[in-house]
Amino acid sequence: MRALLDLVLPAGCAGCGEPGGPACPRCLRALSAPASWTRPDPAPPGLPAVAAIARYDGAVRGLLLAYKEHGSVSLARPLGAALARSLVLVMSVLAGAGPVVVVPVPSSGRQCRRRGADVVADLAAWAARELPAAGRRVQVVRALRHVRAVADSAGLDARARAANAVGAIGLRRAAAPYVAGRPVVIVDDLVTTGVSLAEAARALRAASATVIGAATIAATGRRGTGPTRDRRELGGTGIRSPAAQLHGRALRC
Ligand SMILES: [Zn+2]
How close is the Cα of 124 to the center of ligand 1, in Å? Predict the structure, then answer.
């Protein structure tokens, strides 16, 4: 019905439908909440600490869908700013304020073709622009790619769902020098079961990255606690020069 109304009425706010699209001030405020830790329950093996800004419902769900599926590109900036605050929380576990590598969860080829862009990498790039103002530096590296399609996991329990995804994501060969031995934060727009984040973390750890955590905008799961690892373990890792071809700039599929 909503899709039908969109055809015959001027577009309203993507969050609440009121006049004043693409987003009214009230719905944009839903993206301004402080970041907090979240955890799917059950969490898949290997899932790092996950931060999010909001629950995936109401206005936030509407704004994310408008951006991802309906091409509301003007929402990139507020969504990127929300992701940036989530990143700052994850990076707060580091002892120092040194540079961190940000790796987007890759979109599948099918998602990319349908949307015309890798929207998670886009959001990572927008988030990175906000971070110098927060005293943080990050380097966005599109280090991961889908290696194979994941079989339908409907009906599987959490552990089987996670096992089903193992090996679905791999490292782009050229990215290895930019993640090995470096502190890495994975980013995605949304955390649901945590399987994609856990699989991205597995691929990065296999490339000798130090996965600090994952930053997201919205979570369907319950609120949870932060990382339990010793903070000293994560501090003091430097980052050298970037590889331009891997930056979050060339965001087309
Ligand atoms: Zn609204």
Answer: 24
Average predicted confidence (pLDDT) for the chain: 83
Count of the separate structural domains present in the chain: 1
- For residue 60, the CA-to-ligand 1 centroid distance in Å is 10
191 found inside a domain: yes
For residues 111 and 115, give the distance between their C-alpha atoms in angstroms, rounded to a whole number. Answer: 6
pLDDT for the residue 118: 87
Residue type, 229: R
Distance CA 180, CA 172 (A): 12
pTM equals: 0.83
Residue 229 pLDDT:
43
Please give the residue range of the domain that contains residue 39.
Answer: 35-225
Structure confidence by residue, pLDDT tens digits, 32-84:
999 999 999 999 999 999 999 999 999 999 999 999 988 888 999 999 999 99
Dihedral angle, C-alpha 162, 163, 165, 166, nearest 10 °: 120
Give me ligand 1 centre to Cα 58, in Å: 10
If residue 180 lies in a helix (H) or strand (E), which one and from where to where? none
